[in-house]
Amino acid sequence: MSNWLMAGLLFTPLALATVSLLLGFRQGRALSWLGMLLQLLVSVGLWWLVRHEGGFYYTLAGWDAPLGIELRVDGLVVTFLLLTTLVASGCGIHAGFYLEPDRPWQRYFWPLYWFLWAGLNTVWMGGDLFNLYVGLELITLSAVGLVALGGQAEALRAALRYLLAALLGSLAYLLGVALVYGQFGTLSLADVAGQVRVSEHALLMRPALVLMLVGLALKTALFPLHGWLPPAHGIAKSPVSALLSALVVKASFYIAARVWLEAGVAVASQWMAQLLGVLGAVAIIWGSWLALCQPRLKQVVAYSSVAQIGYLFLLFPLTFGVEASVSLHAQQGITLQVISHALAKAAMFLAAGNLILAVGSNRVEALAGVSHFLPFSLFSFGLAGVSLMGLPPSGGFAAKWMLLQASMASGQWWWIMVLAGGGLLSAAYVFRIYKASFLERDEQDHFYHPDRRLEVAAMLLALASLGVGVSGSQVLSVMAMPFEEVQ
Amino acid sequence: MMQQALIPVFALLCSMLAAAIIFTLPEERQRLRTVINLLAALIKVALVGVMTWGVLNERDYGLSYEILPGVSFVLQADALAMMFAGLSAVLWLLTTIYAVGYLEGSPNRSRFFGFFSLCVASTMGIALAGNLFTFFLFYEMLTLSTYPLVVHRGTDKALRAGRNYIMYTLSGGAALLLGIIWLQGLVGDISFQETGQLKDVDENLHLPLMLVFGLLVAGLGVKAALFPLHGWLPQAMVAPAPVSALLHAVAVVKAGAFGIVRVVYDLYGIEFATLLGVLEPLGWLAAFTIVYGSVRALSQSDLKRRLAYSTVSQVSYIVLGAAVFGPVGTVGGLVHLLHQGIMKITLFFCAGNYAETLGIHKVQELNGAGRRMPLTSAAFTLAAFGMIGAPPLAGFVTKWTLGSGALNVGMEWVVAVLLISSMLNAAYFLPVIHRLWFLSEYEWSYQRRWGRLETHSWLLWPPLVTASLTLLAGLFAVLPFSPLSWAELIAAREYLP
Asked: Which residues cross the membrane (chain A) (predicted)?
């Protein structure tokens, strides 16, 4: 059965991408509905399989490591596959009704969308460093294409900037990978992890680790390497922005986290861990502050991503040189943060897109009066905001709680300050939007009413981000599913 | 057994469900919305009634599940929980009736009643929360769901007040969260329990526990409007009258005061808190707030702002009661949780009636309103006398119990505070009453008539009911199920050896 599931996860997105390249927007859309359903079935199937038989390694086409393509499937992978299915489907459904089918280049949306999805699945399951690189490049190229889909000069400029930053990041990462290969003669992450623990030359791994982390941090838009993100996420079509903020930046972070946890912790030093944490902390504060200052709605949401990504980097100090239980709490907190930010940010971008569609302007002040015109979308925006602020009952709060617990238990109280302050700052920019939309003006324009289905897509994702908050233990239990070392 | 876990859950869900339905109703389905509102409120009163009866007979209602690794979501109904739950259930019903009348014909009612229901669901959660984590969940949910109510009118002034409200309460929430996480780090996830949970901790945890207490009280004190954290409350007066009534009498300020009571009695335990020496500063702070609020109330010319400062002052009675060691003092503080609720909600209902019927906002515009609106003014007068502490009204019972409790344990200064406060209360309420009944009619620029009645009947009945409760709670204080006897029940359980 695992053969079928793997094929479903890796080849069907590629096949769909190729086929939809030949079709128009509407046919591509019809095909994509089927594809989403299939992804849902396959990822739930994989969850069922891992739950009953445990996680496993899978070698593609029978080629063994170190040469072949090695895939690893465990609870965490299943968590991310399910998350991808949920978020990408939500964004895809939204895009299906949001994009105008008759614009000439819009038909490229579906091929790029499915290439992106294939890349994401590859990264989640990738077991060796080179495969991870391939997946990452697939993601980058399709994401850049999606940004450029807007068509205006500004979008092309943002896309180009994004492309350059991403390629630079890839280069650094690839250099790191090459160093690892030269050192250990293997690319399998599991092998590298095993060798680092016993080898006396483990410290030679350090430059490679730094290179990889820098490259990945650039792709994840960690402060101060975040400059490319807000223009790209701000100018892209709303469902595209949602995909980019929710999933694409998480892919490079995921690789960084896996490299760190499996091999990095053994060779890194305290200052590296703390430095990454500090950069994350600055990103939280600085990103939130900039979000507060943005005059345009989508830029607010985009800068909010910069801030929320900062939280992810607290993983590094909270898992380095601490007790296993603290490290586990930190990992759980970060996983929850990835999940809830993905859901909430996707919901927020989609809702923002609906609001912009309704008022016909991207400016925050234009929202006046929208609260009784488009309450449903505004409510979705609000619910997503609750999660970003880290207020209960939401996934963002659950994540924050776990991180607070980990900081408290490891005695790194300074992260507690950052977590509390960051929450207040994000409340400031979220409430700024509420405030603008609650304002009642006499000269009320006539708003355009977007399609109901657009509103429902945003609402479901927002509700899911709250759902994570009330079922944190259940969500985390997927991650903790057993792993069988039998191939 | 199953049923006993379900009742608290239903009590929570019934207003959440009502909120969900109301949000999706179109604006013009007014009748259906009212029916759903009232139905949910009645069901809630019934459920709370059942639980109260059960708690009296020592039944356990509750549920608990692990929401995140290391911490549980706990609901439990004990005597103290039922006190707050009962207050919010009954006053929700009355406020709903009032709000339906008050907002007739105004825009955005779906949104208003949706958030209104969420707000009440949060108070119910706060009442039933079985540990600090669960308490915090609902505490923040309350903050979020009251914001749209405060800014309901959408004017610049309302939005500014809303921003201030959010700044204060979210900062308070952050302090509270820090306190909770710190406490969790020190002693793990502990649930509320009568007589407290921390008695047996290690000696060297005493200092951190004192600091945690400070953080918790600071976080809760924002909502309880303890000086100097009270600044949001008078500003929040721009909200529509039913919101002021609910915020000030039940939901927000009481959530803070209730939280402090929970922390003192059911987390630290009154004996351990006394041992730590944290109660005395708390008592002084409460006493200062009592006097300060009253003094500020004196100089307010806006009726609702005057009432708001009066709230600042009165809520601290509850905190003061918690800070006085000894069962009688406890009873005095707890009973005020209910008494202040019914008295203050009456005053706000009446203020709303004056504003709706005669356009009155300032105190001097009240001249002669007693003849034009006798029933409303009678209710107002009754509640104001209750606030002053005139026997045999509810406020007197509070002050008497609180005073004698303080004397029992040799805290004479509390009595002095009570006396000063009562005099100040009289100083800012008696002129209002004088204006109502004894001065000639003000030239109101705006008058609305509703047939035979002095005002809309949905606006008239709620204050009359709560005003009579003020009288009854004082007259029949010794009967079972009166606020006083329920507070005595709680105190008896808190001081069990």
From this structure: 6-23, 30-50, 76-99, 108-126, 132-150, 162-184, 204-228, 240-261, 273-293, 300-322, 342-361, 373-392, 412-434, 454-476
